[in-house]
Design a protein that fits this description.
This protein is α+β, with helices and mostly antiparallel strands. Among the domains are: about 65-205 and about 260-355 and about 365-400, Sandwich (Immunoglobulin-like); about 845-985, Immunoglobulin-like (Sandwich), CATH 2.60.40. Helices cover about 20% and strands about 25% of the residues. The chain is built from 17 helices and 54 strands. Strands 6, 7, 8, 9, 10, 11, 14, 16, 19 and 20 form a 10-stranded antiparallel beta sheet that branches. Strands 1, 2, 3, 4, 5, 15, 17, 18 and 21 form a 9-stranded antiparallel beta sheet that branches. It has a 9-stranded parallel beta sheet with strand order 33-32-31-28-24-23-22-35-34. It is globular and about 100 Å long. The structure holds 1-deoxynojirimycin (NOJ). 1-deoxynojirimycin (NOJ) binds near residues 447, 636, 637, 670 and 695. 1-deoxynojirimycin binds near residues 484 and 621.
Length: about 1000
Amino acid sequence: MVTLRQWHPRWTAVFLLLALLCCLFAPVVSVKHDNFKTCDQSGFCKRNRQFADDASASSSWMSPYTLDPASVSFKNGQLDAVVLKTLKEGEEKVRLPLTITFLDSGVARVTLDEEKRAKGDVTLRHDSQARKERYNEAGNWALVGGLKPAAGAALNSEAEQGYTKVVYGKASKHQAIIRHAPFGIEFQRDGETQVKFNERGFMNVEHWRPKAEKPKEEEKKEGEEETKEEDKKSEEQGEDESTWWEETFGGNTDSKPRGPEAIALDITFPGYAHVFGIPEHATSLSLKTTRGGDNAYTEPYRLYNADVFEYEMDSPMTLYGAIPFMQAHRKGSTVGVFWLNAAETWIDVTKKRNTANPLALGVEGHTDTQTHWMSESGILDIFVFLGPKPQDLTRQYGELTGYTAMPQSFAIAYHQCRWNYVTDEDVKDVDRRFDKFNIPYDVIWLDIEYTHEKKYFTWDPLTFVNPDKMQKQLDKRERKLVAIIDPHIKNTNDYPIIDELKKKDLAVKNKDGNQYEGWCWPGSSMWIDCFNPAAIDWWKGLFKYDRFKGTAHNTFIWNDMNEPSVFNGPETTMPKDNLHHGNWEHRDVHNINGMTFHNATYQAITERKKGEVRRPFVLTRAFYSGSQRSAAMWTGDNLAEWTHLEASIPMVLNQGISGFPFAGADVGGFFGNPSKELLTRWYQAGIYYPFFRGHAHIDTRRREPYVAGSPYTEIITQALRLRYQLLPAWYTAFHEASTTGAPIIRPNFYIHPEDENGFAVDDQLYIGSTGLLAKPVTKEGADSVSVYIADDQPYYDYFDYTTYSGAGHHTIPAPLEKTPLLMQGGHVIPRRDRPRRSSGLMKYDPFTLVVVLDKDGNAAGTLYVDDGETFDYQMGAFIHRRFSFDGARQALTSSNLETGQRTVKCEKYLKTMEKVRVEKIIIVGAPKAWKDKSEVVVMQEGEKESQRRKPMPMEYYPADGKKAAYVVVRDPRIYITKGWKIDFGEKGAGHEHHGHEH
Ligand code: NOJ
């Protein structure tokens, strides 16, 4: 032992040097790459990339797939045929049944199965109980509609030899040209090819084959020689068999009882330079290429839901959720594919630049985006969308997988979370402090520590002594509680839930058919198998108020770790050879697993108590196509770093265009302690996440908005108030998402699909259809931001009406206290201006309408309101208005967008809202001609001519430098449930000037 006396200065130097080196080389928190596979370490990905490389390298390459023309039949919008895979000369061909269904919506669905496996005509290794078929049930979980075949789709008899053609889509604008040999499909719109399958010949269906077992003795005797011989054979055939029958990674061995069974296909988007989608990755909105080159990735985008600890930025690595929906965009057209497969999937993206032909004058060069999709198992099942608008894609994808559920209104307000609020007193204290500082919030969250020893559905008896009382306090201000419930159930004595799970046999099984046991927060655990309807039924029972004691109508649920996260499992998840209900291997269903769990929770919350029907709220970390129907998501464990704040914007935007818009990131960053500046900027950005929650890791310091102190607390409060002020606009955007599939926050390309310069812009966002354009500050020390404007409309600063016009970049001041927010001319923005402590308390508050005139002096917008709580809106109990300002008539009108018969529920609801006024109207960009005007004439539906009102005052504020002129009308005594008209032209104003003054 070295004592202090012996300590020599030389040692000090060595020590200091070591410490310095440690600092230099200590990993700045970052993902453990070794825990997750690269493509090269994932057998089927490596094989398929190699397959693609071989195909590309050889000039004589011929894809071994052909369609047998004699097998083609066409009936009721569906083509059936058989694709044959040629093995070696003389060997029997592999039969792959093909269907192409042409749907009423104009979408085409292509499926390809493998006959031998489908018939069960195969043997599995290791006496496996797994199913023999390729997994074909992903659609049962992901799809809810849009599958009606098109009556008008027809075989085109004029097809040349070697092709089968089908005409389909609205006005027969679409055409599928199916090439027989080698098999491939081109999808055309208006005679122009938009999407190509197997153009490059990367299609690969790994057919079933028995393992050629060598007698052990022989192996031993011939030893090395034999192996070499084998290797040579494989090389000749160009096939790497090393991962066909078994695969080991990180000490876990996958027994692969069905052998190699991957499916892969190349899909090309000719003329499309941008592709978006396939969340979840921490990457840019416009996807990068993945096979090297400048600023490109070397790994394919991976979709394999995983608990990626301290994930890294700018990476195609997999994260917690998967939506295999990709859209390609170019000027004038958006098309896409939805690859319905729940197994591990990798997607390579490359771009091919076709330079202009110097001899063909006027023919411009263009870029094709080429993609290569590879899934480990399952059938091939692809939907092809031909647009032509981004809105068509989100709508059609939503028809198939469902639109986002309309949440309760509290759910779109602010959520306060941390791991953990440690006692019920702590919760009440935080609640009181928010009030003390006049900071609005709606929901407080409990992470895993509230439970008794990580046993879900229990409360820690020492720290959460009186949950009822705690929730009563929250309820006083209409606030809610969200408690976490994960899918792993503690495997211990004295816990009735695990006893039931075991007894009822509802857990996921291991490959031998026994209940699978793994490690998670509680230690030894088992996982509920929500693929099993009996498990869902059981789960529903657990949430009843008399079962989950201490919960109330204002308790909602957070489902975490549902990838599933298994601490001692391969890649922190379940072994692929585990078995689910119906004996499907985990391999087949992995990416859907999390969705089955949060779906079950959603159902459970709906049925908590007979007669009490409120919209559930469930937050999920893992997700798949269709998750939007029953949950919100967040981007998992980010870091309190500026780069993570920055990355959250494209990530949430990508969720929006991929059909799952109720999304957000942990405000403040989960790991680490943000500086006060970062925290403030994160709140200012977080108010633009559809799902808006502050959250922090257990090892971090407290950071509720009131902790930071002046001026940060005040600035954060202002940001929160801005979110609350705009809740009517957000709610309207949610309504639009829930009825049309449109994103809640929208990227530039979605709003301006013709603006090529803006296709890759992903650091600013539009809120719904409001024209509100936000540009969050994501750089330390910034005092201005550059906002990209795509069109020639005037854009006004939200706070002081400074005008920015002209396409291009504009520098906007952004001192710490400011969140740059612009209003695009042409919209009417609904707000509620009275600051309250929770959104529930704003229910009957009056509205303010901000009318933002476009360059021609017009504006329009909508407002959707309902009770924010029940399902009565589905029976007509809502208000849906359109406000429009007509520049020619100089009048603002409110008209009803719901023209159908009023239901009893509707009447009843309108009655509760009948006193809710529009208390203020602001017209931004007011015509100069109004400068001498002081009155407007107001008329409201139901008032007789004889009751004609006296003109009401209006205030005109002239333009001031770059600040636009505006008008304010205060309390015009009009109601939100009524039709009305405000005439700005009747008295005093010149009718001759209708335009905009800038
Ligand atoms: C992981 C989640 O991502 C995080 O948000 C949560 O706090 C911890 N699990 C503990 O439950």
